[in-house]
Amino acid sequence: MKNLxxxxxxxxxxxxxxxxxxxxxxxxxxxxxxxxxxxRQPKVTYVATVANTIKRLNADMHGGxxxxxxxxxxxxxxxxxAPV
Length: 84
Hints:
The chain has 84 residues and is mainly α. Helices cover 36% and strands 0% of the residues. The chain is built from three helices and no strands.
């Protein structure tokens, strides 16, 4: 445990309360705030969320511009669809 991490994993399911609601900017912002709070907790070494994925995709869609590493303002720009 001294040199390895990841043995203790905690997963949370944060309901958006609506179908497809994970693309809502307000929901993503709430998830992002929760993740920021969790990162500040003692002994937490890593937190991964859908909000981080959306922020990374937003920056990538803008040529990697770090100014776009943020949650988009519009639901359509944050929508994720599964392959058919």
